Amino acid sequence: MGPGRLFPSRSAVLARRVAGAALLLGIANHSGAPVLRSGGLRPPAFRPSLPTPEQAPSAATAQDRVPGSLAETLAHAQQLIERRDLAAARSELTGALGAYPRDPGLRNLLGVVEAQQGDYRKAEADFKIAIAAGSRFTGAYLNLGRLYQENAAKDPRALKKGLEVYRRLLDFEPENVEATYQSAVLLGRLASFQASLDRLSRLPAEDQQRAQALSVRCADYAGLGETARAEGAAARLLAREDLAEADVLSILPVLESHKRDDLEGRLLEGLAERKLASPATLNRLGLHYERRGRLDQARQTLERVAELEPNSVATLLELARVANQQKDNKGALGYLAHARDIEPANASVHFFFGMVAVEENLAQEAYTSLKKAVSLDPANAYYNYAMGAVAVGRDDPREAIPYFQKYCELKPQDARGRFALGAAYFYSHDYERARQKLEAAARAPETASGAHFFLGRIANQEGDLAEAVRELRLALEGDPNYADAHAELGRVRLNRKEYSLAEKDLLRALEIDPNNYTANLNLMILYQRTKDPRAEAQASRFEKVKKGRAERAKEFLRTIEVRPY
After folding, report:
1. Exposed, middle or buried by CB within 10 Å (0-12, 13-18, 19+), for 547?
2. Helix/strand/coil (H, E, C) string of 488-545?
3. pLDDT digits over 5-52, tens only?
4. 3-state class of 315 per DSSP?
5. Residue 368 placed within a domain
């Protein structure tokens, strides 16, 4: 959970007195962090507030000795902060430090400036000085607590330090609603869910029903595994008129860590139904639907995001991924073409387009896109592998060799690179180099079947049919459903005139892969050679298979499971 929003009834508008002058603080959210709200007002995350004389009598006395000067400086600096003129505010405040180095109001305002400028350590030091100088300066305590909450990523002890600051504030001001609420938020973030619930119970009854408090309660129940209570709190939260997007987003980390994907989806859907979801939240809902396998809803939701952010390449890539999972490759290519127009130098877009083009047997489009991806990111191993896989199926398979060599250079421990390089040498008719790489690949379990398959093909090409049968059987021992190995074995049997065995192997290949090119071709040859009446039908079948041939690229991509996302 992120920092909680401020409860407005006690802190939305703060009046502080300096030398008898009442200062009404403006409302402005300076940090962008969520704060509790009421009546549409959003209090500042950091309070540019000043102590009352009772909170820091020494400062009041000092101001009396220098009539008006410190009060005027503080009032002017406060106005500058509220106008976001931080450089001018810092200059004014640091100029007064020489005369009043430990004035709590001065240090508090300086801490606010430093916090907003991202100087965590200096802000922390100034808030601590303000607290030390005015031990009951509520605004400084709340600012320091807020600082810790917003800098948890920088300081691993920040959450515990923030909790301690709120505890100290509650020691002298036990009814402080803001400190009580923020303590509950921090306890939840520290996974002390029961303690967080206990702290929430100390809030006034009306405040316990605010959306912000119900949000924390929902997360606490989810963290404790109290499913029914978590769902009840979620239902009450979604029904609240004061519901804001941040109420849901702040508790998603707890829901995710406790595997409450269902509750996360319900809350995100509630935001969308209430039209409270930003494009980023709609995107999150779309990805939630995708995780749950609800691809139609995922696509519809991501389409809404794309309408709101038409130039978001990230959203277009997500839409392409979902469309690809729906087997709508034409739709995926449409999204990717749009993304490519927006970011023509984005290598990942060209890569994704090329991979989908392979699936659609768009050989030239795949080649062009993958070549562009490699040119934009030549050190990407998978781009090189995919380009090699496509190039090996073109007129000159030798074009694939440098891409597979690059993959081997980038991933020297991956036997699949050596296997692919060996296969590329095979298709280039360089059997000696092919054999060298493939024999090495045959010693690795993940590439053994494929390597034996190509070694069998080399033996067949060289006329050593017995060796070809031996290698192909080894390929099938490692993978009994290796359609290409069954097809090649059938081809060898055909060459040996073992027609019955050849038919058996070829039919087995087609049982596994009905569109296998080698199996369909050699079954046609077998039927023609044996005058089988099925020859004409098989010839017709083979003509259809020929039209969609892109086997080599797909074979290589299956071997290494190169994925576009």
Report:
1. exposed
2. HHHHHHHHCCCHHHHHHHHHHHHHHCCCCHHHHHHHHHHHHHCCCCCHHHHHHHHHHH
3. 554 432 222 222 222 222 212 212 223 333 333 332 233 456 565 565
4. helix
5. yes
Report the interhelical angle of 295-308 vs 279-291 (nearest 10°). Answer: 160
476 vs 33, higher pLDDT: 476
Determine what percent of the chain falls in helix, strand and coil, rounding each to the nearest 5. Answer: 70, 0, 30
Residue 325, C-beta contacts closer than 8 angstroms, at least 6 positions apart: 290, 295
3-state secondary structure 400-447: HHHHHHHHHHHCCCCHHHHHHHHHHHHHCCCHHHHHHHHHHHCCCCCC
Q: What amino acid is encoded at 451 in this protein? A: A
Whether residues 33 and 181 share a domain: the answer is: yes
pLDDT tens digits, one per residue of 78-131? 999 999 999 999 999 999 988 898 899 999 999 999 999 999 999 999 999 999
| CB 529 within 8 Å of CB 521 | no
Interatomic CA distance for residues 18 and 103, integer angstroms: 12
CATH code of residue 411? 1.25.40.10
Q: In angstroms, rounded to a whole number, what is the distance separating the alpha carbons of residues 213 and 177?
A: 11
d(CA 155, CA 163): 14
Which one, of 373, 454, 446, lies nearest residue 413 by Cα?
446
| Residue 321, token pair as written in the block | 């991924």
Copy the structure tokens of residue 182: 């923020």
The better pLDDT of the pair 63, 171 is held by: 171
Tell me the C-alpha distance between 518 and 61, whole Å: 97
- Single pTM value for the model: 0.77
The domain containing residue 481 runs over which residues? 345-560
Contact 109, 50 (CB under 8 A): yes
Q: What are 378-433's pLDDT values in tens digits?
A: 999 999 999 999 999 898 999 999 999 999 999 999 999 999 999 999 999 999 99
pLDDT of residue 40: 29
Structurally, the chain folds into a number of domains equal to 2
Does 255 reside within a domain?
Answer: no
Element (H, E) at 171: helix 158-172
List 16's β-bridge partners, or say none.
23
